[in-house]
Amino acid sequence: MTTTARVNVDPNFVVGPVNRRLFGSFIEHMGRAVYTGIYEPDHPTADEEGFRQDVIELVREMGVTGIRYPGGNFVSGFHWRDGIGPKDQRPRRLSLAWRATETNQVGLHEFASWVEKVGGELMYAVNLGTADTRESLEVLEYSNIPKGSTLAEERIANGRSRPFGITMWYLGNEMDGPWQLGHSPADDYAKKASRTAKALRQLDPRVELVASGSSHPTMPTFPHWDRVVLEHAYEDVDYISCHGYYEEKNGDLGSFLAAPVKMDRYLDAVIATADYVKAARRSEKTLNISFDEWNVWYLGDNLRRFPRQADRFYRTDEIEGNDWPEAPRLAEDVYSVADAVVVGGLLISLLRHADRVTSASMSMLVNVIAPITTEPGGPAWRQTTYYPFAVTSRLAVGVALDVRVESSQYDTDDLGSVPLVDACATHDAGKGRAAVFLVNRSLTDAVTVTVNLAALGELSLLECQMISDPDVYAKNTRDAPDRVSLQPNPTARVEHGILTVTLPPVSWTAVALG
């Protein structure tokens, strides 16, 4: 059975510019994200610094922009100096966040070099859990001051003559969570973040600062936490962060496919909270949102709430006789077609809020809940979720448009009635390019969508690609790395300013026009 839907696209209805930072990602010292992920000196493709070149090529192809580092929960127990200086003199530390041994063979210098190789922007999180304002000032001075101070000269002596020039700085991570080292009440964190922000800006006025907002909309302190933090730090920071992970529960695929509706409602609540504080303070400043952890993650109710029990998620053969393993296999989810469709929908949600969400990080990038998977000494391959991210990053340029969608609804247990079809569009008037992104959430029926593009002027079809498969749980694995990949959608056509395309059930589609 095929149903219909209509979408209207008008360049006069602009949400906001598409900031390239929307297509960021995240590398934490967790599991195999770093070691045997991006860094494996003995790998056949390793370069002179030990970085896997097969992974570098995949990250470049994916179109990742900013990359948040080094955490995550890890950062709240991390001392930045552990990762600088001669490698053979760096300490081996116990990472309390993920109950693992951290060798510190990849630190600030090495990671900055890797980010340059992939063409990204390094975005750095400071420890506001077990450390203080002074330590944040030290790592900023080491990183950004050209020369003359003791810390700047130490950086030069360690092999980096020019500054790292890091602009984006995160003031701690998930400080609302009781699992976080150094967790404190909102009022205490807010005061610490405010004074740290003031100090960092005094040292380098160019920095952009992110306050730690709620780690999930289901937190009992949301949005009270965000309000209290901003009441103290509103004028000191540029962003409030939010984190969100989504998963299919109890076989309820219909609710899972509607996860972007959850993201929409979460973002609307965070924006409303920030704007309430703006109004209460009589401020002229509008605060932006950094959605710096988002993805599909099959974490259940335990891992993220109680990460100190992370050994329950290790492979048994990696922890026997070793309570603090190095780079254990942790949270290595294998993603399906349905997961990729949800990721495509979450990207639509971010674009729908492009006026306020100006930075985002898919969490993570390699091996740990990641679109790229590697095997030690072996291959690297794309997970299903790689494809919607890569295509959206490439095609979504210019401004995001506020589109109107007319679609049938369906009922979900979690969210009530939601649209079968989700959509967004971007437009670059200067280049005469546009893109339309579409999701069909129906479990059984194809949907023929008519998109009115007439207001954009004369456009022709450049490409139409989709993620779709009769088996919505099909996955890519080491033995079948290309089981799921992008496919052309042969139904797409443009005539007289009208795009018509048929979307298979449980599918994500991207259309480029020019």
Q: Gist?
A:
The chain is α/β, with parallel strands linked by helices. The chain is built from eleven helices and 26 strands.
Output the strand order for the largest sheet. 3-4-7-8-9-10-11-12
Query: Which structural class do the helices and strands define?
Result: alpha/beta
Determine Rg (CA atoms, Å): 23 Å
Helix content class: 10-25%
Quick check: average pLDDT?
95
Largest sheet: 8 strands, parallel, barrel
Uncertain runs are 304-319
Number of strands: 26
Distance between the termini: 32 Å
- DSSP strand content: 25-35%
By DSSP (H or I, 4+ residues per run), the number of helices equals 11
Shape annotation: globular
Task: Provide structural commentary.
- With 514 residues, the chain is α/β, with parallel strands linked by helices.
- 25% of the residues lie in helices and 25% in strands.
- The chain has eleven helices and 26 strands.
- Helix 3 packs parallel to helix 5, helix 5 packs parallel to helix 6 and helix 6 packs parallel to helix 8.
- The longest helix is centred in the middle third of the chain and has 22 residues.
Strand and helix layout:
Blueprint (H helix, E strand, L loop, with lengths): L1 E7 L5 E4 L6 E3 L26 H10 L3 E4 L23 E3 L4 E3 L5 H11 L2 E6 L6 H12 L5 H8 L10 E4 L14 H18 L4 E4 L12 H10 L5 E8 L6 H5 L1 H22 L7 E9 L19 H4 L17 H16 L4 E7 L8 E3 L5 E3 L3 H10 L3 E3 L2 E3 L2 E4 L3 E4 L1 E8 L4 E8 L5 E7 L8 E7 L19 E2 L4 E3 L2 E6 L3 E7 L1
Parallel strand pairs: 1-21, 3-4, 3-12, 4-7, 7-8, 8-9, 9-10, 10-11, 11-12
Antiparallel strand pairs: 1-16, 2-15, 5-6, 13-14, 15-19, 17-18, 19-20, 20-26, 21-25, 22-23, 22-26, 24-25
